[in-house]
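Morning run. Coffee first, then this:
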Amino acid sequence: MKRALTLLALALLVGLRVAAGEPIAAVGPIGITVSDVDRAAAFYGDVLGFEKIGETEVWGEAYEHLEGVFGLRLRVVQMRLGGEEIELSEYLAPRGRPMPADSRGNDQWFQHIAIVVSDLDRAYASLREHRVEHASTGPQRLPDWNPNAGGIEAFYFRDPDGHFLELIAFPPGKGDPRWQEKAKGSLFLGIDHTAIVVRDTERSIAFYRDLLGLRVAGASENWGTEQEHLNNVFGARLRITALRADSGPGIELLEYLAPRDGRPRPVDARANDLLHWQTDLVAAGPLPALAQRLFSARATFVSPGAVDLPENPLGFRDGMLVADPDGHALRIRAATSEES
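And here it is:
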């Protein structure tokens, strides 16, 4: 609580909410570190309907500083589903650690993307045909007594490296209206949000809303047998807060009110470890100015600040890697000419 108040006071002090707009204009793509990018791309393409839109390989001092990994050589595949993108990154060198075998849904390194489907029963049947690993017991329909989540259907599963993923289907009147405009013949529609487990919602709101300028788009408190079997966490009771920028998928904060035995992200985790995700945030203004605001607020930097890249094979020329209060990685980058 004390840190949350400090972050809030510093954010107000340095005047982050400037008249020209919020510090962050957009969210995405969502990055995932994988052990074999060909295998991962085949999974996301063949099983979930993502389209490969690019591939590149990067190395050198600038990228080492950006990701905080010395001696890296990084192979990256970009993929799109609907209007959203993911970035699959394989560290050819140095290889990182595998996903902890006993990872649970309430561990604080947990992150997933929620993939919107037009028919959850059909999507689940398709996953079963591909022998995808369950994380939930099975598809769950959240109960109608919950006004903000009632009627939403969801299912957790894992990719070949053990990363959690979610299928989600919204009933009429729930979710972004565009998910009701189901494209003819499409089963997998796009990415609604990325969800992260946080220890303290107020502390995270102070970071994401008051420091970075994302807006709170909704909130819910979920519990009961459906939520327990969705997350596969016995006794799960969650405080859920949805955050959004002007465009891109949302960021959903998951605070486990119970049980509170989720483990913190390892302090020595790095971008080449398979538990690593990184969410891109597109700066609304000059990146050095935003870096200075974050330094003034004592945010945790992985990179030494804004890093100038020699070229733009990743689609941008300068960026920085920052950690939120629970260690979740955010790659903040300058807007491209198309995004400006």
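The chain has two domains: 23-97+272-334, 111-258. Good start to the day.
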